[in-house]
From TrEMBL, chain A:
Signal peptide: none
InterPro entries: SKP1, SKP1-like, SKP1-like_dim_sf, SKP1/BTB/POZ_sf, Skp1_comp_dimer, Skp1_comp_POZ
Taxonomic source organism: Rhododendron griersonianum
GO BP: jasmonic acid mediated signaling pathway; protein ubiquitination; ubiquitin-dependent protein catabolic process
Known pathway: Protein modification; protein ubiquitination
Subunit organization: Part of a SCF (SKP1-cullin-F-box) protein ligase complex.
Domain SKP1 component dimerisation as annotated: residue spans: 109-156
PANTHER family xref list: SKP1
CDD domains recorded: BTB_POZ_SKP1
Domain SKP1 component POZ: from-to ranges: 11-70
Protein name listed in UniProt: SKP1-like protein
Superkingdom: Eukaryota
Protein task: Involved in ubiquitination and subsequent proteasomal degradation of target proteins. Together with CUL1, RBX1 and a F-box protein, it forms a SCF E3 ubiquitin ligase complex. The functional specificity of this complex depends on the type of F-box protein. In the SCF complex, it serves as an adapter that links the F-box protein to CUL1.
From TrEMBL, chain B:
InterPro entries: F-box-like_dom_sf, F-box_dom
Name under which the protein is recorded: F-box domain-containing protein
Annotated ranges, domain F-box: 60-106
Residues annotated as transmembrane: none
Organism per entry: Rhododendron griersonianum
Amino acid sequence: MASSIENNNEKLTLKSSDGEEFLVEKHVALQSTLLQNMLDSDCSSADVIPLPKIDARTLALVLGYCKKHADASSSKQGELNSFDSEFLKDMDMGALFNLVLAANFMEIKGLLDIAAQKIADTIKDKPHQEVREIFHVENDYTPEEEAAVREENRWAFEGFP
Amino acid sequence: MCPKWLLGWKCPAKGTPDQRSLHDCHTSLSFIGGISEIVRRERGIKKREEMERDKTRDEMDFLSALPECLLTAILSRLSPRDVCCSAATGKELRSVAESDATWERFLPSDQEEIKSGLAYDSAMHQETTLRSPDRDGPLRWRTGNLIASFADHKNKK
């Protein structure tokens, strides 16, 4: 029993792509399947775990999410749900995309789900011209090609410009 | 380009800097130890320019940063109508919008069993169209075809 408490207090150091280090409790890090696998296979002997694809700003957000979910695992689901929606509120699209990438890389399914859902909600019921602006996508269709795509699924574009 | 203080400076080799190219000056300076202030400053500017460029690139196009599986994860959370519309934004999104992986989420959760004929048999006793994989080789898992077969099945009913 004593040893398991000791294990819970163990800390890991994660290093972001821009060199910032984060000290994380082990039970928080276990929210990430990637880190869990690393710990299971005993790769954690290294002092610092580098996460070369995640910048400090994103990693701080990810760890905030992990901490809340690790600490609240036994508490009410409703509380976590309201935390999740508050967590992504007012987040800009760039931060959301970084978050999805980080959640995918670190294999944090819950975070991936809510961030992908949030991006989907942003483009829901929007005409494709607006989606282009939100995603900063360049229109690489010729006018004829675009017309052909629209014609293919004409029903979907009804009511849109 | 060459700062004033450097003009009066004697190179370790023969002549003053104004008799030589700026490049030589830099080389001599580096040679006698350390990198000169201007070289360092120039590198700083270059690095900052590169960072700016990277930043604008990031801001340019979110989609190209995401692997296809993540684009699928996003699109499959939309309605079928939104997925069809998203195909008109650009070619990259179109290929994701038309992929089976995106549409799989809109299909019934027991689709695998339906495909193999198990659930289908127990649910409805007469129809056999969807059991064809046994006889005609694997059922083609293209979105259009699959939806067509479901629609077909619905019409026949």
